[in-house]
Structures are given as structure tokens and as C-alpha cells.
User: What shape does this take?
Amino acid sequence: MRNRRTDQQRLFGGFVRYQAQVEAAASPQSWTAQAARAVLAAVGGASRNPGPAHLNVALGVPLVGESTPLPPSVTPSPTWPVYTLTPTLPPPTLRRVGKPIFPSAAEVAANPRSRSAVLRVAEKP
Assistant: This one.
């Protein structure tokens, strides 16, 4: 029987806010940076659009075999970087132009799903 492996790099397609692959041989700084980026994307820190993030960790050794005791818990070091997850972007400012435009009866007849469509135009002040 052949070994079956799932390509996990694009497993979730466009549904995730961030996706990355971390190799087993990568430096600890790379692991930390990728994890921080994934968390920042998941909470919407940069985009204000929170959602799922996928961080695929490629381990060098498969997760099979005998179990071993867990290592002791890690005490955070004062030299570790601190990542702020509070958005620092100013709130977007837009000014509405005109009135909302709704689909006509003919457009709804041609495409019933268009009845919920509303077109609004805005510009930066």
C-alpha cells in the first residue's frame, strides 16, 4: 500500500485569511514569526477582517511510534518579542455620494437573486 499524503498548502483555498508552511528545519525565529502572522490575520489585526488562518507545520518525523513524556512548560523570556494584536489603523472615512440604487423589476425578473442587491457609491473626503 502506498503512503497517502494530502497537499495541505492550499487545502482551504481562499477561505483563510493567511496560510503558510513552516518546515521542520526552519529557525525558531521563523516559527515564531509565522505563528505571529497567523494569529494577527486570524484576529483581523491588519485587515480588520478576522477569520481562519492555516499554519501547516511540516515535521521531519511522522507522528507515530512510542509516546514520550511531555517537556516541562516553557516560561516566557523577557527577551521574547511582544506582538500587539490591537489594530492601529485609523477608522476608514468615506462620504456617501447620492442615494442607494436598487435593481429594477426587469433585473429582478431576469435574476431573482438580485433583489437583495444595493449599490452605494462613496468617496474619500
